[in-house]
Amino acid sequence: MRSALVCGAGGFIGGHLVRRLKADGYWVRGVDLKSHEFAPCEADDFLLGDLRDPYFCRHTVDRRFDEVYQLAADMGGAGFIFVGENDADIMHNSGTINLNILDVCCKRFVPRIFYSSSACIYPAYNQTDPNAPNCEEDSAYPAAPDSEYGWEKLFSERLYLAYARCRGIEVRIARYHNIFGPEGTWTGGREKAPAALCRKIAETANGGSIEIWGDGCQTRSFLYVSECIEGTLRLMRSRFVGPVNIGSDEMVSIDALADMILAVAGKQLRKQHVPGPQGVRGRNSDNRLIERALGWRPSQPLSVGLGETYRWIERQVFAGKAAPRAPAVRAA
Question: What whole-number distance in Å separates Cα of residue 108 and Cα of residue 123?
């Protein structure tokens, strides 16, 4: 039986990844600073601890895993990444985790490790036009991410590639583009746009209004979590190193995203545009490289994933009205 370690297994993508690896017949160890908030962990073994601690990392990687998936990070949506006050924590926490995990994986002769980077590494100067952003993989340099979160991700990409060159460990690097779906953070300040809009719409009675940060014309693409997992596993089990985009190329404005969720909800609400953190004006996954390298690209329409996500968040909202929700625990 093949074995895998999932760092960040208590998080949104990590939880889905553990489930898929188990379905594929793997023995799985999960590790995180917190347990999953919305679903029981399906890992064979789950360690609760802080990957910023080198001793805990050595305890976590106490054997030679066939595959290691490094998804653990200090992260959140625009309301966490772009406000400035979290920058030091974001860079220190995520950077320390990556330094620790890479070091111990090399010492345990782990053959291959996956690192989840982000579309936030792309230069802000290529994303000023909401209708024509450039997120081709080769456009990453000259570097100019729009946030310290993006700078840390770019540094860590180079860290993994340096270890591959100098220490002989095989790495695989993906740049995720706005992953969404059920069992993800939907309230508390770290949620991303699809979850935040689903929550606002679910909480608002028909005929009311919801707030949208900015003018609503900023554009993004959003990838459903099951397609993210599929792309991640295809990359991990290929000969291609990356970095490569894993994201949808179905670009929409934030206003259009809200309209799609309103259609799913069957509601008519007014959109009230208010000041707030927004990030770049436009971002969209360029999927030409992943199609050439892996013979695959995401294909599920955004509307399908939004339907699943809205219905799940709507259930959480109504469950929360019946019983107070426990405070969120900050994840590594």
Answer: 36
